[in-house]
Amino acid sequence: MKTKRFGVSMDDRLLGKLDSIVKQKGYPNRSEAIRDLIRSALVEEEWNDAAEEVIGVLVIVFDHHRRELSSRLLSREHDRPGDIMATLHLHLDHTNCLEAKIIRGKAREVRRIADELIAMKGVKFGRLIPATAGKNLR
Ligand code: NI
């Protein structure tokens, strides 16, 4: 793909903010930082578009002694194979497990699945990380 250069005007203060992002996050230059900011806005747009297919990563921490919870989580995945594509399971300690689940689908559906799992009794922590299937990113 052809790379084009363009000029951007902004006031000193905003440019200063950009430069501190560049420094803080270790970007090699302003251009790479600006590209990432644009990509991040594009991913956000995907999640606002009902028709767009997205990928999210749901992180949950739960008590595995709640037997019914582990089996409910599992049957949820067997009932609708495909929307939860993969699960990474970590035994944190005697009681707690952490799972990272990769969920693919329309944004609304991915959010619904994440909410459903987070709301289950025994799930102590849950957060959905909105990622992307990547087709709008270069
Ligand atoms: Ni475990």
CATH homologous superfamily label of the largest domain: ACT-like. Chain A, domain 2
Bound molecules: nickel (II) ion
Number of domains: 2
Provide the helix percentage.
40-55%
CATH topology of the largest domain: Alpha-Beta Plaits
What's the CATH architecture name of the largest domain? 2-Layer Sandwich
Strand-pairing-aware structural class = alpha+beta
User: In what order do the strands lie side by side in the largest sheet?
Assistant: 2-3-1-4
- β-sheet strand percentage: 25-35%
Most strands sheet: 4 strands, antiparallel
CATH class of the largest domain: Alpha Beta
Cα-atom radius of gyration: 20 Å
Using the alpha-carbon principal axes, give the shape: elongated
Low-confidence stretches: none
Keywords, separated by commas or semicolons:
138 residues, 4 helices, elongated, Alpha-Beta Plaits
Could you walk me through the main structural features you see in this protein, from its secondary elements to its overall organization?
- There is one protein chain.
- The chain is elongated.
- The protein has helices spanning about 10-25, 30-50, 65-80, 105-120, and strands at about 55-65, 85-90, 95-105, 125-130.
- It is built from four helices and four strands.
- The protein is of the alpha+beta class and about 140 residues long.
- It starts with 11 loop residues before the first helix and ends in an 8-residue tail after the last strand.
- A four-stranded antiparallel beta sheet has the order 2-3-1-4.
- The mean pLDDT is about 90.
- It has two domains: about 10-50, Met repressor-like (Arc Repressor Mutant), CATH 1.10.1220.10; about 55-130, Alpha-Beta Plaits (2-Layer Sandwich).
- Strand 2 (about 85-90) and strand 3 (about 95-105) form a beta hairpin.
- Bound molecules: nickel (II) ion.
- Nickel (II) ion binds near residues 64, 89, 91 and 97.
